[in-house]
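Input set for joint prediction.
Command: fold jointly, output C-alpha cells.
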Amino acid sequence: MINTRAEILLRKRSKRKTKSYLVEQERVKTRRSIISLTFFITSIVLIGLLSFSIILLNFQAAQSQLTINEIRKEINYQSEIKERLNFKIAQLQSPQRIYEEAIVNLSMSNPDEINYINIDTYQLVKQQKSLEEDQDTQVGSSGYESFFNPEFKEDIYKTILTLLFP
Amino acid sequence: MGIIRRAKDKFRPIFIFLIIILSFLILSYRLINLQVLEAQEYDDFATNQHDRDYNLFAQRGKIYDKNGKELALSLHQVTLFANPYFVKDPLNDAIKLSEILNMDVESLKEKLSRSNSGFEYITRKISPELANRVMELNLDGIYSAREDKRFYPKDSQACHLIGFVGLDNKGLAGLELEYEKQLHGVDGKMTAKQDGLGRIIPGTYKLKSDPEDGYDVHLTIDENIQFYTESRLKKGIEETVAKRGTIIIMQPKTGEIFAMANYPDFDSNGFNQSNSDSLKNLAISYNFEPGSILKFVTASSAIDSGSISKEMVFHLPPTIKVGGRVISEPFRQVAKDYSVADILINSANVGAVILAQQMSDEVYYNYLSKFGFGQSTGIDLPGEEIGVFNHYSQWSGSSKATISFGQGISVTPIQLLRALCTILNDGVAPNPHIVKKIYGKNGDIDYFPKPEIAEKRVISSETAEAIKSILIRVVEEGTGKNAKIEGYKVGGKTGTAQKPIEGGRGYHSGISITSFMGFAPGDDPALACIVMIDEPSTAKGPVWGSTVAAPIFKDVMSFTLEYLRIPPLTTDIEQ
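C-alpha cells >
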C-alpha cells in the first residue's frame, strides 16, 4: 500500500511537472509567435516606409525634372528673345538706316574738310620728361605726384597746345 | 475485330504522340524563324512602327564683319504641317487656317484632303506668334515643328559676298556656300516611341546625339566701308546709266578685302524674287577685256625681264601695224619720244605694243601668268572665273600687241587688283581673302586664312618700286588726274576698253567698259581699289575711265582713308 501511495505521489508530481512543462512550452510558443509577429509587422512597416520613400523620391525627382524642363523652356524662350533683339539691334545699326536718319531727320552732312595734325611725339615726350625732371628737382617729390601738381599740368597743356598750334 | 481494335488501341497513343511532336516541331520552326532567322527584319519593322526619329537641328553659325557687326544670323521659326489622315473637316480647317496665314483656301483644302498622304507642309518658317495662333485652334492633324530661318539684318548689303541659304538651311551662294561645312554644324538625333495612332508616348524620348552648332565666321569686310562703297557705286551707275559695275577695296600687303560691292544687287532676305543677273558676284566672276589698265603689267614685265631699262626712251609713231592689224593712238596724231613712264602717263597704245615687242612671246606669256591671269586668285568665294588667256602657242600675229594694251585677253576685277597689289607689295603677289577667322561656340579658333595659292614673287622689288612711282605720276600728270585726293599721294591707272561684239568679230563702236585702279597713300600704300563700270553713257559725250571710274575711286578712297584714320604720309604733305 505504502508503495502504492508513494507511486501515486510520484505520479502526481510527475503530472504536475508535465503540466508546468506544458505551460512553459505554451508560454515559449506565445512569446515566439509574438516575436515573429513583431518582426513581421516591423518588416512590413520598414518595407512600407522604404517603398514610400522610394515613391516620394521618385515623385520629387519627377517634380524636379518638371521644374528643370520648365526652366529649360524658359531659357530657350529667353534665348529666342535675345536672338530676336540681337537681330533688331543689327537692323537698327545698319549704316544705311543710320545714314538716312542722320541726313533726313537730324539734318547732318558730311564734313567739308578734314584736317590731320602731325604731332612730333618724340619731341613731346622729350619735353615732358625734361619738365618732369625740373619739377622733381624743384619740389623734391616723385614724378607721379608732380603730374598731379596743377602748375605742372598747366605747363604740359601749354606745351601740347604750343606743339599743336605753333 | 478484337485484333483490329487492339491494334488501334496500341497505335492511338503513338499517333497522338507523333501529332504532338509534329506540332511541336512546327511551332519550334516558327519560333526559330521569328526569333532567329528573320528576327532582324521583324525587329526593324517593329522599330519603324513604334519609334520615330527626330532631327535636332544645329543652329547655323553667324557671319560678322571685321568689327563684330552681325551680317547674317539664324532665328527660330515654326513650320506647320498636317497629317491629312487625321483631319476631320478639310474645308472648315482650310478656311480657319487661311484667315490666319493669309493663304489660298482651295490649295489648303486640297492639301488637307489628301488622306492617303501622311505628311503635307502647310507653310514653312513662319513667326512663332503666327504659329501659336494656328495651334490655339486645336485642329486635328495639324502640327508644328521648330526650324531655323536665316536672316540678313542689313538686307542687300554685301549680298554677293554673304550669299544666301535655301529652305533646308544649306548654303546656295557666297560665303554661305563656301563655308557651309563650318557654318552648318552637325544636326543631332533623337528617337521617341509612338502609339498606334502615331502619337508620341511621353517619357520615351531617347537622345542619340547632341546637335553641334555651326561656327561663327568673321570677315575682313568693314560694314561701313562696304555701305559707302555700295552707295557710291549705285550712284555712279545711276548717273551714267550704266549696265553694271563693281568695286573692290583691298589691303595690298595682307590681301584682306575691306569691301566688295556689285551692282545690280539683291535683297538677301528675298533672293528668290531677284533676277539671276543680279545674283552674280561681278568682282570675281565678270570676265572683261581690261583695256589700258593692263599696260602697267606690260611695262613691269618688260622692265623686270631686262628687255628694257626704265630710263629708255622710245620713238612712237601715231599708228603701228602688227600682224596685219593697225593699232593707233586715240588722241596723238604725230610721232613723239616717250619714256616708259610717259607711255603709262599718256596711256599710249603704240607705246605698250612696242614695250611688248621687246619681249619674246614666251617671256611675256610667263609674266602675265605669274601676275595671275588665266588662273584663280584662290579667293575664298565660290564661282570665281579665271578669264580667257590663251597659251602663247595659240596667239595670232597680233595677239601679243593687242594684249599689251588689254585687248584679246579677258580678266576679272579681282585678278587685276591682285596684279596691282603685287606691285604695291614689293613684287610679291598677295592672297586675296574675305574670311579673317572662324570661331567655334566655345571660342576656339577653327580657321585662319590658309590660302591655297602660296604668296609668290612675281617681279623684283626694284621693278615694283619703279612702276609704283610711274603710277603715282599717272595720277599727278596723266590720265588719272580725276582720282587725285587732296593731301594724299595717289597712284593708279585708267582703263577704257571697247566691248567685243558677242558672237561676232570686232568691237562695238560706242560701248565700252571703263575702269580705274589705284592706291593710296603713295609711298606706303595702305589701300588699293579697283572700280569697273560697264557700258556707261553720259550727256557730256564719250566716256573714259578717267571721267567715269576715277571720280568714283576718288570718293571711295577718300572716305576709306578718313574712316580708317589713315593720315597722309609725311612725303605726301611735303609734296
